[in-house]
Design a protein that fits this description.
heterodimer; A: mainly alpha; B: 205 residues; 9 helices
Chain lengths: 448, 205
């Protein structure tokens, strides 16, 4: 047996109450080695009897309590000062969450497309850096860059859904307008370059209008085209905006200005149309006769009504009432003249809806601003002249040359004005009882 | 002499979280559990009852300071916590000897006030002598040997308990015990003068 085991056995016996001598007797051969170790062990046995006195323990506990109190006081002060670890952790987590939220919001806005909720934010946000640019030239350039992006948005939306996004369209024109404002402080050479860019926008809008699958979209794009051409003229001439107190910054109301919701024209029997066409200088105050069946301006017809396309309700009359007539330089094309004039000028001349419903009169002739406008115009102009001034052929007037005309005038579309019509009657398309726009009987057939 | 009750794992696992939250009652319960054990260890190392009592309090002050960062070994909670406590005590002893080396001389016979059952003057003198004798002997041992001696004779642990406490096998504990007692027999039998030289040389290491 090992000595360590023998020693341990002897120690256990001693702990059990045996004398050391008895243990040594059991292991006679190892007694000489065991004796000094057991003697030391016997003296060590007393070690277990050492204890702290009660008074010492009491003093120690008081010291510990004081230390604890001091420590908790310091800890509470630290937490009050916002320096405690949990508070720091919470603050760090809050900051991280805030940063993540901001990144997500910026990403969402940056990736938004026309039709998205956050698209309005993107439109405004993208124009914000304009005001950090030094000088009007840089600002105008940046406005046109933003307008380029809006044009792309309009094109994409048109391709995707066949709609002309009103927000993108309004933002495009607002940027062009703002560029024109900045350009008014530039020399002519610079203005010419900027005008060329605005003109490109107009051309692109024209192309989109021709490719638009839906009549309403085509109408909106056509009106926007004319507006862009007017802006291009303004840039070229360096004229400031005509609105007093107008601000080139993004105007939310711009949406209303360019939203070309085709307004039902509550008049325009053929008789009225002929009268209006005969007017040499129609005024914006002319009040056309109410169209029977049309409940005021609330019904919005499609540009090219189809069997399945019902007229929609128009925006509130108050919105329409703020619409401005075309500017002096507004020189619409053949088709757009009639449409834009209808959209922009008529609501200000229309009577309240109640009056319109109180005077129902079946339309004799309704007119649709479709592709057949030229034919109509040609027919009307072929009538014997009544007015003193002979009618101009519709194609005679070149577009886009800045021929100034009074506001509210039909412009080159004055070809629609056959002689003999009383002044004040507008050449407006008429809406049938159901709110649809029909071809005039002169054409002899309805549009499909 | 009755064997001291061993500290159960459950006692430690229930006390420790409360101590880490700074509950005074839990700290006092911990003190009640370990104070005498730590005191005996310190007394056996220092041979000075007052210094051992003061350092015992100091051990628990250090516990308060650093217990929040202590991570319990869930396989052997009581043993791991005891080992941590004795490590603190051992560090304090080392600091104590370093302080004495810098000039603070503590007489082995000064201030020994033992509190074992209101002893009389004769008993106090014997205990003072025993404490000094043990301290002189333990100073020459390795830390493992010291802990085995303190565990076996100061805490009256079984071999298995000491083995669990130190994380060793029972055979290793028996071997350590044998070598420690043999060394003590040689050292303490060599005379007071040599033993005193031994304890001071140990303190200077």
């Amino acid at each position: 047996m090992e000595l360590a085991t023998i020693l341990d056995d002897c120690l256990q016996r001693m702990r059990g109450g045996d004398a050391a001598q008895a243990s040594l007797a059991s292991y006679g051969d190892q007694a000489a080695e065991l004796a000094p170790m057991l003697a030391v062990a016997a003296r060590l046995q007393g070690l277990a009897s050492y204890r702290l006195a009660s008074a010492q323990k009491l003093r120690a506990k008081m010291t510990l309590r004081a230390a604890l109190a001091k420590r908790s006081e310091r800890r509470s002060w630290l937490s009050w000062a916002g320096l405690a670890a949990p508070a720091r952790g919470f603050a760090a987590a809050a900051i991280v969450a805030l940063v993540l939220f901001a990144v997500a919001a910026v990403t969402t806005v940056a990736a938004s497309r026309p039709g998205d909720l956050s698209y309005r934010v993107r439109v405004v946000a993208e124009r914000a850096p304009v005001w950090l640019q030094p000088g009007p030239e840089n600002r105008a350039e940046m406005e046109l860059n933003v307008a380029d992006r809006r044009l792309v948005d309009v094109r994409n939306r048109l391709r995707a859904s066949g709609q002309a996004d009103p927000i993108a369209l309004a933002a495009l024109l607002a940027s062009d307008e703002a560029a024109a404002d900045h350009a008014s402080r530039l020399p002519a050479a610079n203005r010419a370059a900027l005008a060329l860019r605005v003109e490109r926008h107009a051309n692109a809008l024209t192309a989109l209008a021709e490719a638009a699958p839906r009549p309403r979209a085509a109408l909106a794009l056509t009106v926007a085209t004319e507006r862009a051409r007017a802006i291009a003229d303004r840039v070229r001439e360096g004229r400031p905006r005509r609105d007093p107190g107008s601000d080139p910054r993004p105007q939310p109301s711009a949406t209303n200005v360019v939203r070309p919701t085709p307004t039902p024209t509550p008049t325009s029997t053929r008789e009225a149309t002929v009268r209006a066409a005969a007017t040499d200088a129609p005024t914006a105050t002319a009040t056309p006769a109410a169209t029977p069946g049309a409940r005021g301006p609330a019904a919005t017809p499609a540009e090219h009504p189809t069997a399945g396309e019902q007229p929609t309700r128009e925006p509130p009359r108050t919105a329409l009432a703020t619409r401005r007539p075309p500017e002096r330089t507004f020189e619409p094309g053949r088709l757009a003249t009639a449409i834009a004039q209808t959209v922009t000028a008529l609501p200000t001349r229309m009577g309240p809806p109640a009056i319109a419903t109180r005077q129902p009169r079946p339309p004799e002739v309704t007119w649709t601003p479709g592709r057949r406008a030229t034919e109509i115009v040609a027919t009307l102009t072929a009538l014997p002249p009544v007015a003193t001034r002979p009618p101009r052929p519709p194609e005679a007037t070149p577009r886009g040359h800045g021929d100034e005309q009074p506001a509210g005038s039909p412009g080159p579309g004055g070809a629609l004005d056959p002689p003999g019509n009383p002044p004040g009657a507008a050449a407006t398309p008429a809406m049938g009882p159901a709110g649809s726009i029909e071809d005039p009987p002169l054409s002899g057939r309805r549009r499909p | 002499m009755a064997m001291q009750p061993a500290i159960a794992d459950e006692q430690i696992t229930s006390l420790l979280p409360r101590c880490q939250r700074g509950e005074a009652a839990a700290i006092e319960a911990l003190y009640d559990l370990y104070a005498d054990r730590i005191y005996r260890y310190l007394l056996a190392r220092l041979g000075d009852a007052d210094a051992a009592a003061d350092l015992t309090t100091e051990v628990f002050l250090r516990v308060i300071k650093s217990i929040a960062g202590f991570r319990l070994d869930q396989r052997r909670p009581a043993a791991s916590f005891s080992a941590w406590l004795y490590r603190i005590a051992a560090n304090l002893v080392a600091d104590h000897f370093r302080g004495r080396r810098r000039g603070v001389q503590i007489s082995l016979d000064d201030g020994l006030s033992l509190a074992a059952a209101e002893p009389g003057p004769q008993r106090v003198a014997e205990q003072r002598e025993t404490a000094a004798w043990i301290a002189r002997g333990l100073a020459r041992l390795s830390e493992d040997q010291r802990l085995v001696i303190i565990g076996k004779f100061g805490e009256e642990m079984s071999n298995a308990q000491v083995a669990a406490w130190l994380g060793k096998t029972e055979g290793a504990v028996k071997s350590l015990q044998h070598r420690a007692l043999a060394a003590l027999g040689r050292l303490l039998g060599a005379g007071e003068h040599d033993a005193e030289k031994a304890i001071f040389s140990s303190a200077h290491r």
